[in-house]
Amino acid sequence: MKTRFVFIGFQHPHIWDLVARAAAHPDITIVAMCEEDAATREKLAGDKRVNLTHTDYRQMLAEVACDAVVVGDWFAKRGRIVIDCLKAGRHVLADKPMCTTLAEYDEIVRLTAAKKLTVGLMLDMRDSAVFGKVRDLVRAGTIGEIRAASLGGQHPLLAGKRAGWYHEAGKHGGTIGDIAVHGFDLIPWVTGLALRRVNAARVWAAGVPAGSHFVNAGQCLLELANGAGVMCDVSYFSPDSQGYTLPMYWRLTLWGSRGVLETSLTAKEITLCLDGEPAPRPVPLGAPNPGGYLTAFLDEMHGRPSSGLTMAEAFRASRAALVAQQAADEGRRDVAL
Q1: Which of 6, 150, 240, 312 could anchor a disulfide with 32, C-beta 3.0 to 4.6 Å?
Q2: Could you tell me the domains of the chain?
Q3: Looking at residue 30, what is its pLDDT?
Q4: Could you tell me the pLDDT band of residue 255, with boundaries at 50, 70 and 90?
């Protein structure tokens, strides 16, 4: 029997990757789709990728027999939706962030345990050919013990093109929670080292349109379990004209006891600089794992052995991002994770 999916919210472009993958998956059937925003429904009229069946997600949950709900609404609305879906006894696969407050996070964790449900997250960077190979190299000890890391997840602002709700008060929830959650999943997955502490974090607005409430810049300094430091920048400062093609898009640099490794999500190779060698050398990428986050969610949901990202890992990354966002919002330092 196929797994029955429903979708809630189409106000962020990430959702289209999952729409395409679910529609093409032999073990998934999409049984309903909901968009509550009238303007978005109008934009989607005639779009063959969607078949909007509902304008109220609570009504959809009450009427439609389904197994899993995909959540892709505006960020600060997601936590409430995820909680309502879990209360209704449905598994959830959410775009990141799945929620924007620690109170929502705690309730989501409580409900998954109480109702024995699975929550998955669209953390797809670990599915790339680049970072899968980085993990192999690091876990093999190629650069030795990790001593420091730097991660740059800067995005283009795309004012006038990016969804307008980013600039509306109370709808975004924070740039660290929005973007850094990818890095907070990637770093432990690559290194095998848990995030231990948020040493410092800061958010601020720069270059946003007049009247915007979008706090579009975010930086944080974290500590790994072995004491190594992580510097992370997730600001919306990349040039709009080059979009997501910059060679430093999601640039990752890892310093180890035996050398340095550097690459990025757009790179065609990994640069390895090892002590004892006279010059840097390129390392070919590995094989990608497209849609790995979806496969992993289905596996955990159906009680099969894990094939990738687990709910526990998604929760740890989400909590770390929420704690770092709160530290930045409140001006707090040295917050344990």
Answers
A1: 6
A2: 3-117 (3.40.50.720), 126-291+322-336 (3.30.360.10)
A3: 98
A4: very high
Peptide bond into 209 cis (omega under 30): no
Q: Look at strands 259-263 and 269-274 and give their pairing.
A: antiparallel
Can you give the pLDDT at residue 49? 95
Query: Contact, 138 vs 324, CB < 8 A?
Result: no
Nearest to 289 by CA among 309, 269, 262: 309
Could you report the per-residue pLDDT of 179-203, keeping only the tens digit for each? 999 999 999 999 999 999 999 999 9
d(CA 318, CA 177) in angstroms, rounded, equals 8
Q: Quick check: 252 and 137 in contact, CB under 8 A? A: no
Q: What does the CA dihedral 73, 251, 296, 55 come to, rounded to 10 degrees?
A: 10
Q: pLDDT above 90 covers what percent of the chain? A: 99
At residue 214 the predicted structure's pLDDT band, cuts being 50, 70 and 90, is: very high
Is the pLDDT score of 100 beyond 90?
yes
